Amino acid sequence: MKTIEGSEVIEALNWRYATKQFDTSRKIPADQWARLEEALLLSPSSAGLQPWAFVVVENPAVREELKGASYGQAQITDASRMVVFAAKTDYTQADIDAYFERIVAVRNVPPEALAPFRGMVEGSVLSRQPADKAVWLARQPYIALGVLLTTAALMGIDACPMEGFSPPDYDRILGLTEKGLTAVAVATVGYRSSEDKYADLPKVRFPAEQVVLHV
Ligand SMILES: Cc1cc2nc3c(=O)[nH]c(=O)nc-3n(C[C@H](O)[C@H](O)[C@H](O)COP(=O)(O)O)c2cc1C
């Protein structure tokens, strides 16, 4: 693997910001967008279960409707692309079966070899109380959100992570409920407008000694 200098990564993380105003005239080239979708697929998740879906909303009329369910935030319609991070509303034996079939196919291993891991996953996931399970499920897509934001920054592509929307309205508009999914977060992705004054604001972060604890 070709490595990237740590200083280049830090430069990208300083360059990125939660974009408020996108340049509506600039679209992400298809090959670059394909890489960002690939980054979503490569995101890690608890036990590798991937209990999520990434809904790339392409229909402008639907995005207009979603803007109304997002306190009118302009990024929803102005960014080149928009992804809704959806969590599964439940995780069942059937989901576990599908995951283990996938491992068998991809790694070409006999199912019996996976029995201990399968037992561990079944024990830890299926025994969870519904409320606890819902919290655990909702956390997973945030990992992919972080991966997307960092990957986009390294590619010189702007993004805004967003939680300012009504999940029940999103679920209804996108038909997520009947798919066993619920919206937990959004990323709008594209290119900053030269008029976005937020781009030049200094980052507000607590000093390292307050948040990075060496014990
Ligand atoms: C989970 C999450 C939800 C957010 N929701 C919104 C949002 O709805 N609208 C918005 O403009 N910014 C939103 N933000 C952006 C944050 O305000 C921003 O990331 C934070 O202030 C740090 O600034 P920076 O990202 O520019 O470094 C959200 C960020 C995160 C991580």
Give a brief rundown of this model:
The protein has 215 residues and is an alpha+beta fold. It has a four-stranded antiparallel sheet, sandwiched between helices.
Attribute tags:
215 residues; 4 strands; binds flavin mononucleotide; single chain; alpha+beta; NADH Oxidase; 4-stranded antiparallel beta sheet
User: Structural class from helices and strands?
Assistant: alpha+beta
The strand order across the widest sheet is: 1-2-4-3
Helix content estimate? 40-55%
What is the typical, i.e. mean, pLDDT? 98
Using the CA coordinates, give the radius of gyration: 19 Å
Structure ligands: flavin mononucleotide
Number of DSSP-assigned strands: 4
Word description of this protein:
The chain has one domain: 3-Layer(aba) Sandwich (NADH Oxidase), CATH 3.40.109.10. The chain contains 9 helices and 4 strands, in the order H-H-E-H-H-E-H-H-H-E-H-E-H. Helix content is about 45%, strand content about 15%. About 25% of the residues are buried. It has a 4-stranded antiparallel beta sheet with strand order 1-2-4-3, with helices on both faces. The longest helix has 25 residues. The chain binds flavin mononucleotide.
